[in-house]
Structures are given as structure tokens and as C-alpha cells.
Amino acid sequence: MDAKQRYSDLKQLLTEHSHNYYVLDNPQISDGEYDRLFQELLGIEEQQPEWVTADSPSQRVGGEALDSFEQVEHRIPMLSLENAFSDQDLYDFEDRLKRYLLLEDDSLTYMAEPKLDGLAVELVYENGILIQGSTRGNGKVGENITAQLRTIPSIPLRLLQTNIPRIEVRGEVFMSRSGLEKLNRQRAEAGEDLFANPRNAAAGSLRQLDPAITAKRPLEFFVYAVSDPQASGCTSQQELFIFLAELGFPVNKHIRFCAEIKSAITRFAELATLRHDLSYEIDGMVVKVDDFSLQNRLGVKARAPRWAIACKFPAIQATTTINEVVFQVGRTGAVTPVAILEPVDVGGVIVSRATLHNADEILRKDLRLGDTVLIQRAGDVIPEIVKALPEKRDGEVKSIPFPDFCPVCSHPLQKLEEEVVTRCVNPHCPAQRQQTMVHFCSKAGLDIEGLGKKSVEQLFALGLIRDLPDIFLLKKEDVENLDGWGQKSAENMLRGIAAAKTPPLARFLAALGIRYVGEVTATLLEDTFQSLEKLLQVSKDVLIEVDGLGEQAAASIVEYFSDPAVQKMFSQFTDAGVVPQIAEKKTENQLLTGEVLLFTGSLKKLSRSEAKKLVKEHGGQIASGITKKLTCLVVGEKPGSKLKKAEEKGKKILTEDEFLDLLSISSVKE
Ligand code: IVH
Q1: Residues 490, 481: Cα–Cα separation, whole Å
Q2: Cα of 251 to ligand 1 centre, how many Å?
Q3: Which of 28, 71, 103, 368 has minimal CB crowding within 10 Å?
């Protein structure tokens, strides 16, 4: 047999045996035999380096160390999940689904999957070959960690079927309990910091610029989704898992089909017991609507899909004492008391701080300095104090006075009657400016590489950045000799800043930290106005007309943009070369582009929410009433006065069926 044929056979054989061993947990040959084949492969590759392909089993270990992680945009955003904390939350979840889909029967079925406590990643395969792997990042943009992911033995480098042009799969990289223990033992011996939990260990191991280090970490992987279920050829999550297993992906064996929501609740109780016997940590269970066409109808709300929910295991509690209380000033001026605790292990995580939320909360819980308290941590939620244990007081406790003046700028604090928060209302308060900058550079903002919280606080404290535009004027020599910096990190930061000069407008708006303007509202503003200049001059009357924008947000936006200091800041942004980009609106297939619709009366086939979602998906807008802008009224049963008004104004009128026909939709219930 010629050497090339032998080489290709060896790759095939080793891929199959590695799949048997790591994915199916069912080895067919001895370790010695595997090693022998592997050595033979390496021998051929040494002779014929030009034959080596990306899917060769030898390519798991190697790879050059990187200088920094490249950013990758996910073609389809990686979402997060809403949480459920009780059985009732799951019943409510089903009620919402039924209302949205106008279902009266109990036909909804689900998949219940253990919620792995690790790091979400995306793997892209073209013609069966792994070509890219990335972290979730902020959901839209993650980091390219292909070389690091290649080192994980249960991630296929080549699929068992190679006839699929492209598939993007998603899943969790995690570390087993024993893997983490072993790693922490080694770290303790080497005098290095220990990882507090498997998630940090997985993240820390994947974010190694040198993949050779990642290769030494005991990482594992389970698949749980594809980016575009409709394109997978499967009709349900259940089918998808079968398909993904056939492709060679590891599928968790504790996943169950549930014919009703009640079965999912039962399964949750089972998992709550089972979790202790698993070799890896899970922090809950994910429930997903099984049927893909229903998932598609339900769609996405803000950052999470409507069709899935994460049920979290009950919080883990511990007792400790309050040593001190500090007061932090956030970017909106809100003053938050934070308890400094005697460090304590809460379910494997060392907790030394807990939020006390606000002044009322301290009074309500009657907390004192020196108190013994019960604290709890639920998943990744910030630890909080459940209650004081006054029976443990020994006379040494002191009350916790709330300051009257800002701990940072000494401006008098203000507490409005209707609000629970106490605020520093000094617009020039350095703490607010500092936190605004931290937010601007953070993942929720422009996600500027090299400008994490600590670095921004450092540069701010040194006076190197006073206002947001200053960030874009930073130079290498400003930072490279500072504590914790070097030439490389300075260069990384500059690259990050350069990349941040052309952010999508919505992202830029959300980064500014305008009150009530998060990602969702920012996207709405970009879609509606398509220009920063227009926003700088917008009036409240115009904003109120925007469907989906609340009155508070409208007021806050107008107040923000009309502030002369803000106007000046924007001209500084421009001078510094910052040019927010406007995403091109999709025009193909947009049947309702330019149309402004309104629904009235009771619809029989669609819920109002689904109807509105359909309008937006087809490029249309929703009117707030029978306004001048309205182009078409869709009429259900018992329409009321709106129909008459619209007719008088000569607006186009459609029935629910005509509306569905227009969009060629026939799959909703008959
Ligand atoms: S589905 C819309 N399934 O939970 C789909 N996520 O908050 C979103 N996770 O970042 C993910 N196990 O890392 C899904 N079986 C599972 C999961 C799972 C763990 C994590 C995932 C994600 C987070 C969602």
C-alpha cells in the first residue's frame, strides 16, 4: 500500500478510536495499540510534512502561541437564558408559551437537559472539518480560540459525515470535579492561585494564549445546540441530538424528552439528587420547547429565546460575620452598601463580599456590624445576605449608618420618595465618571480589549482619562511603564481602541450609559433613526411615537442629548476619529418595508405578541394608534372604534387571514 493511502487510513482509524474512547466511552483497542498507531502517523508526518491536514489527530497538541485573541463575530448571536427558581416558574413558562402560540391543549413537548457549569463555545465545521472555534463573548462577538479548542479530545476535528457544507454547533466546555481537584493540587504545589470553581477553571484554561498549556488541562465538551436549527434538516431538539451524535459529538446522557411540563418538573427533582453522583458540576436544568417550528414562531426576546428556560438549583447557604460595610457609587450615582464578610466557602466558592442592595434593605433585615449572618449564592448571582442571626449576637454589634454625603465627592446624597436607591446627584462626581468609563469599555459597552475594569480605574485614578473621548487619545507611552502594563499589553490596548472607533451605532449608544438605554432600546434607536446626528437633535414628541420606547426612556434620552456637555463630548468623539456605523437594513424579502401597522379586535390565529413580531420580522413598524403614519389596520373580531376611525381616514384594512396570506403564512393553527 502506498504511504499516502496508509496515512489517510491512519487518520481515519485514530479518529474513530478517539471517538470510541472520548465520546462513546467505549474503547475498542488498548492504549498501547492506540499509541503505536499514533507514533506511526507522526513518523509519516515527519517524512511528509506537506501531507499534514488540519483534521489530523496530531494537530490537537501543537499550534503556535498567540499574541492576542482575534475577535470573531457569531453569524447568529449566542443567546443567554431566562431563569426559573421554582416549579411555579415552570408552570408560568408554559402558560406564557401557550398564550403566545394561542394554544389551548397540552400539546407542547420539551427536552430537559442538565445545565453544565462551564463555558459556552461555538464550533464551525466546513465540509466536516473544524475550521473555527470561539467563545460566546458578549453573544455577538467572541474570541477566536480554535487552537485551544482543538486540544480537547472529545471535540471532533473531523465529523463522521463530511457532506455538510457548513454547520455551527454550540456546547459547553467544562472540567470534571476530579480534573479540577488535580489541577488545583498542582497549582497549590507551584504556589499559583487556585480556581474557585469549574467554570473559572474552564475559562482560564481556554483563555491561554499558548494552546500547549490548554492541552494539559483536563477539559471536556458536551454539545447542546446548533446556531440555525431550521437549517439542520431536523425538526426537533430530540432529532437534533441524534443527528449530532451521528456526526461524532458527545451528547450528555442525562438529557430527557418530556411529553408535558410536569415531567420536566419531575426530572428537575431527579437531577437535583443525581447531580451529586455526577463526575462534573451542573447548576440546574435547561428546558427547551422540542419542536423547531414552534421555537421559530416563539423567537427571541431581548437576549434570551422565549422557547427555553434555565431552572436553577436552590441556592447554597453558609454563615459568616459582617466585618465592615463599604459604600460604592455606581455609574448612575446609586450608592450601594456592600458588606465585607469574614471569608467563607459557599459551595466551593470563597465569598468575602455581599451586596446589601440599599438603605431600606439594611433596616428591613436589621443588620448590624459584627452580626453573624446567613448568606447564599445561587449560580452566578452575586452573593447576598438572607438574614441576620440575632441569637448569635454577643453585645459587640454596631448599627450601620447610611452616609448623608457621597463617599467619593462629598456631595449631599438624595433619596427620592418613590425610589429605594440613594443617589449622588452631582453630575461631576468622579465615581460616576469612572464607572461610566468602566461600563463604556466593558463587555456590555464597546468591549475594548485591554481596558478591563481594573485598568480603566487605574488610568482614571492617574488622570490619564477624564472623559470618554480621552480613551481614544491614549498612547502607548502613556501606559507601557505603568504598574501591571508592558509593551505587549499596551499594544493590545491600542489595537482594541482602534477597533472600537467604528462600533455599530446601537452598541455605541448602549455603551454611553444613558439611563434606561440598554442594548434593546439602543437597537431600537439605531433602527428608527439610522443616524447619530438625528438623535442629537431629537425631540420628546418624536421619541414618544417610537413603538417599544417607554416614556421614562424617552425623557432620559432627550435630557441626555440636549445637555451642552454631551454635545461637546460628541464633537470630541468625532475629532478623535470615532465614527459609529449604521447597519444596513435588510431589504430583501421585506414585504412590509415602509408599512406601519396596527392590530385591533381579537385575533383568532395569532397572539398580539406574535403578530407584532411578524410585522417587525417582515420589515414593518407598529403604530401607537390611528396616527398619520399608520398605513394599514389589521382587524380581528369585535374591532371597536379604531376600525371606524381608520376607515374615515381612508387607511388600508386587512382581516387576520388576509394579513397571514400576505406574508404567505399557513403554519399557524387552523
Ligand atoms: S442552550 C438559547 N443548553 O447556559 C440557547 N445552554 O444562560 C442558549 N448552558 O451560556 C443555550 N448547559 O453556556 C443551553 N443544555 C444547555 C446548557 C446551556 C449549559 C449554558 C450556556 C449558556 C448559558 C445560558
Answers
A1: 9
A2: 14
A3: 28
